[in-house]
Amino acid sequence: MKLILSEFAGACYGVERALALVEDAVHRPAPVHTLGPLIHNPQVVAELEAHGVQVAQRVDEVDEGVLVIRSHGVAPQVIEEARARGLTVVDATCPHVLKAQRAASNMRERGYTVVVVGESGHPEVESISAHAGAGAIVVQTPAGLPDTLGSGSSSVGVVVQTTQAPEALEAIVDELRRRDITYEVRDTICSATRQRQEAAARLARSVDCMLVVGGHNSGNTTRLYEICKAVCPDTHHIESPSEIDASWFVASDITVGITAGASTPQEQIASVVAALSGG
After folding, report:
1. Residues annotated as part of the active site
2. Cα 254 to Cα 177: distance, rounded to the nearest angstrom
3. Distance of CA 243 to the CA centre of its chain
4. Which of 11, 6, 1 is nearest to 262 (CA)?
5. Of 21, 25, 188, 278, which one has the greatest count of Cβ atoms within 10 A?
């Protein structure tokens, strides 16, 4: 078996920054909670819990200490509520998500109807939508755009979930253009996402089997899986070596590509490589 690791794979700057901020917070003489899972990686969340970092789903579940805002960001009023409760707020929102939030807020202030291209219900999309205001529209495909969009005098502002595939944004923009709607686009897909997606696609075209490592609840890892699956049918999304199935590698001369989502630490990638190498 030949193993090839993607040129760009694993934890991005935003994730590493969030983990570093939590590590600093743990050394404070106060309880530490994250508001929701810090990142979409169950193994990392479990490790943090083992070090005393608890996950709270709502601000009112935390009475004292440090509250860490996860990398996906939150609505502005959530941070205000936490500070009003006397909590020390550590904002671990990814800088790229902050950029998307600011873009959405700016467009709202300028009177635009804001379209957020992303997964409905995803915490990052919810945080961006909160900055975009009550009239924000969340879509992943052109079919989700309301028929009434652009019928008034308001222009349309478009921002995008940082981990979306560029094709999703392009499809929305093409539809706005087809409808002759006046629009402004802020392409807020982060460079780390583009690098991982492009490198994964290149690698998937050249191998027999592809493994995508990362949380099953991770949107960016799922998109990597979808991109690889489209060009390499024998693609598998796994969180850990325990999910590897030997039947995937029957041929002795098989070439296996490995990539990982932006919320996957290097040690998790290394554990998969070690398992396949017999180490």
Report:
1. 124
2. 45
3. 22
4. 11
5. 188
Contact assessment for residue 263 and residue 212, using Cβ atoms and an 8 Å cutoff = no
What crossing angle do the helices spanning 95-109 and 13-26 adopt, rounded to 10°? 110
- pLDDT per 10-residue tile (average), the chain, 279 residues: 94 92 92 93 92 95 96 94 96 95 96 95 95 94 90 84 92 94 93 90 97 92 94 96 93 92 93 88
Q: Give dist(CA 38, CA 18) in Å, integer.
A: 7
Which amino acid is residue 249, in one-letter code? Answer: F
Residues 12-50 have pLDDT tens digits of 999 999 999 999 999 888 999 999 999 889 999 999 999
Q: How many CA atoms lie within 13 A of 170 on its CB side?
A: 3
Return the H-helix or E-strand segment holding 268. helix 266-277
Q: Give the pLDDT of residue 129.
A: 97
List C-alpha distances in Å: 101 to 127, 168, 174, 238, 260.
Answer: 7, 19, 23, 31, 26
Write out the H or E segment, with its range, that includes residue 132: helix 123-132
* Contact criterion met (CB below 8 Å) for 168 and 119: no
Element (H, E) at 209: strand 209-213
Cα–Cα distances in angstroms (integers) from residue 195 to residues 7, 16, 93, 201, in the given order: 9, 17, 21, 10
- pTM for the whole structure: 0.85
